[in-house]
Write a structure and sequence with these properties.
The chain is built from three helices and two strands, in the order αβααβ. 55% of the residues lie in helices and 10% in strands. By secondary structure, it is mainly alpha-helical. The protein has one domain (1-7, 17-58). The longest helix is centred in the N-terminal third of the chain and has 12 residues, at 2-13. It has a two-stranded parallel sheet.
Length: 58
């Protein structure tokens, strides 16, 4: 059930299958999960990271 709530929260913030790096990091912090774990969830949901703060994801 907890994952379903997080998935819904991710989908709320993702626009056109994309989410800003800053927003993804904020979600990970709010939900107390590792950014890598959130990244894996984003991959499973086919949501791409944009505006990467490190320049890794254009």
């Amino acid at each position: 059930m907890e994952n379903e709530q997080l998935i819904q929260k991710i989908k709320l913030h993702a626009k056109d299958g994309k989410i800003a790096c800053k927003q993804a990091l904020k979600l990970a912090e709010e939900e107390n999960i590792a950014p890598k774990a959130l990244g894996e969830m984003l991959n499973e949901l086919n949501i791409k990271i944009m505006s990467c703060q490190l320049g890794c994801f254009p």
